[in-house]
Amino acid sequence: MGSVVRCDRYPYVTGSSVLGIKYKDGILLASDTAGCYGSTVRYKSVERLKRIGDNTILGASGEISDFQAITNLLDELITEDWMWDDGNKLGPFEIHNYLNRVMYNRRNKFDPLWNSLVLGGIKKGKKYLGMVSMIGVHFQDNHVATGFGNHLARPIFRDEWKEDMTLEEGVKLLEKCLLVLFYRDRSAINKFQMANVTEGGITITEPFALKVNWELEAFRNPTKGAEGSW
Amino acid sequence: MTKTAIDLPPKGGFSFDLCRRNAFLESQGAKMPKFRKTGTTIVGLVFKDGVILGADTRATEGEIVCDKNCEKIHYLAPNIYCCGAGTAADTENVTDMVSSQLELHRYATSRESRVVTALTMLKSHLFGYQGKVSAALVLGGVDVTGPHLHAVYPHGSTDTLPFATMGSGSLAAMAVFESRFKEGMTKEQGIEVVCAAICAGIFNDLGSGSNVDLCVITKGGKEYLRNYQQPNPRSYTHSKGYHFTTILSSKIRSLRNHVRVVEGDAMEEE
């Protein structure tokens, strides 16, 4: 009656990093829109940022099908909460707890949902930004990143994030990190989305591209003065 | 013809005779000795007048920091320096060897060494050992043809770049470079960016730590700035040391007077 114990799961269609920061009025999340099938960029318009209810946004990296399963679960959760009609809506902390339990329980059955999730939200002035990994490790911080973003974006965040940034500063910081990720992560493409959650509501931008710079003089003729080397 | 008692030494390089035996022992469960790695952040950057090389100073042996302040920027020639990541013995010996070869080459040609010479010597040596010599290097220098910066990988491939990072902290340092590098920076700007990159490695990578070493090479000469920045001071020390010899006050209470034997025998006093 129980499900088959599968210890040999591999991710097939994967999403790359998700970045998240807290700023003065709320939370900003950013990711690219690539769904890679191994080493091919199979899908270029995968939305990896989803709104959950009125005050939370979820970003996921890892297996896209598992992310879709998680959003279905959360949609059901939000619908049930709405049906209670008790004047209270589930906030980001509650959804974090729910996700945490889901991920940890799946891990205990050796059948994990192969995702690293970034959850951000704001309710009654209290900002929340946190991460849940596929084995159930969870924490909250002022800035989070998944996958390659941990190695490439987190150092920049630690250096340049400050308390109470404006929306422009936050966007600029995220764009800087997205550009570094595009240069140095092989599964990233130059098509990004950003999600913004404030007390006023949630906005997810249309996909946009960043300006890249390949015009370094040294790239034009790398072996100038060193004929024969490479 | 008598047999000589002395065996002729094998002709140079490694002898791979014991490899099969080692592999067998390992498969039987014997633990191989750990080697001292430099688990590192090393960077190089080309600025307006030359090259700046930077490195952290932590050497690790597995999980332990075995040297808090080692030197990772090695001398190759008066105008060429090389940062090394990977196995410490490999980086030290390879750079020493190439440094001696370059000096002999200088005597033979009566000319200042060129960076491509060092590059070719390093890459042919490393390729010959098929990656077993675990040395990942950032080679930089200024010669008659201008400033050069190269990244050399353990298998012998090289990259000629305006900015390069290697080692376990290379991603953190590369993130800083990709966001802040501009062509034609001044020396001060270059030093600032290199320090920021090494500090990103020091604070975000567990294999890197302690202090920042720099080496600025220009046509005029070089500046070897050992421990240019020390962002990890021992904070809980007193500058004058802690003195425990000065007695501020003393109070002696004889406990014997307070003991009243209610039952049983009194304790024997010596």
Chain-averaged pLDDT of chain B = 88
Widest β-sheet, arrangement of strands of chain B: 10-1-2-11-12
The general outline of chain B is extended
Which two chains form the greatest contact, residue counts included?
A-B, 27 and 25 residues
Chain-averaged pLDDT of chain A: 92
Apparent shape of chain A = globular
Number of helices of chain A: 6
Rg over alpha carbons of chain A: 19 Å
Multimerization state: heterodimer
**What fraction, in percent, of the residue positions of chain B are helical?**
25-40%
Strand portion of chain A: 25-35%
- Count the DSSP helices of chain B: 5
| Poorly predicted runs of 5 or more residues of chain A | none
How much of the sequence of chain B is in beta strands?
25-35%
The Cα radius of gyration of chain B reads 28 Å
Low-pLDDT ranges of chain B: none
Class based on secondary structure composition and strand pairing of chain A: alpha+beta
Organism (chain A): Sphagnum troendelagicum
Keywords (chain A): Cytoplasm, Nucleus, Proteasome
Subcellular location (chain A): Cytoplasm; Nucleus
Pfam families (chain A): Proteasome
